[in-house]
Amino acid sequence: MTRGKSGTAAGTAGSAAGGTETSGSGDIVRTQQLLWDTGPRPSRGPKPGLTLDRIVEAAVQVADAEGLHALSMRRVATELGTGTMSLYRYLPGKAELLDLMLDRVQRPSENPADLGDGGWRSALEAMGRATLALYRRHPWLLQVNQSRPVLGPSALDGMEKVLSRIKSMGLTDPELISAVIAVDGYVVGAARTQLYAQEAELRTGLTDVEFWQAQAPVLEELMLSGRYPVLAGLSEDAFGTDFDHFEFGLQRILDGLEVFVTRRREGGEAGGEEAGTRDPADG
């Protein structure tokens, strides 16, 4: 669980390539101590009641309200009504703070029902929806490259709960991790698309409807030209907002996993082999 892609799965797959920040870029040992509460206690600060927990919570609030670009030790200190230097009694700096924030917002639900009805498919389905909701609550997560997370209690607790529900798939351990990565990666892409659409509206001042209406005259002429017969033949609701593209994609991924699981159980594939990889001589 601490090497390679297993580490990627244990965090979220929110590895936004080219993100503005990178998890695990600070003092890894010190960050682990802070996450697991195994390090030395901070000296008493000048502001009564200041705690590491309050610092992390304030940092999350700043990122939620103003974006990750606004996050700094000075900004968090201002939010807490204290001096910047007082924060350094509790943690080394912004890099370690970010890792604590990541673990804070990814705390798994304590309600077993939030992971479905007990079956592996419902568990992955619930995980996908919960992850999308997480990115909607904290869009700044998409700006963090989490390909190498520092694993804290939230990350490991969440992974433990999901894996305990999907062990019934009967797959090998690498395949189980890959199933989680597949769903999580899909959700990250969907969340990023939704966030970009919201940002585009804010930056341009045009609603989505206004944006497409501005292109309508040219597009309608092109559709009548005969150059794009398939596009021209699409129904009027093809690009409508009523269709739930996220749910459609999520269910198709789960359908594919279900076919794979069924084939494995029926002995259609030897453990660890994938469809299409057998030697033709084997029949």
TrEMBL record:
Residues 49-109 form the HTH tetR-type domain. Coiled coil: none annotated. Residues 1-26 have a biased composition (Low complexity). Pfam families: TetR_C_1, TetR_N. InterPro entries: Homeodomain-like_sf, HTH-type_TetR-like_transc_reg, HTH_TetR, Repressor_TetR_C, Tet_transcr_reg_TetR-rel_C_sf. Keywords: DNA-binding, Transcription, Transcription regulation. Residues 72-91 bind DNA. Residues 1-27 are annotated as: Disordered. PANTHER family: HTH-TYPE TRANSCRIPTIONAL REGULATOR RUTR (PTHR30055), TRANSCRIPTIONAL REGULATORY PROTEIN (PTHR30055:SF151). This is TetR/AcrR family transcriptional regulator. It comes from Streptomyces gottesmaniae.
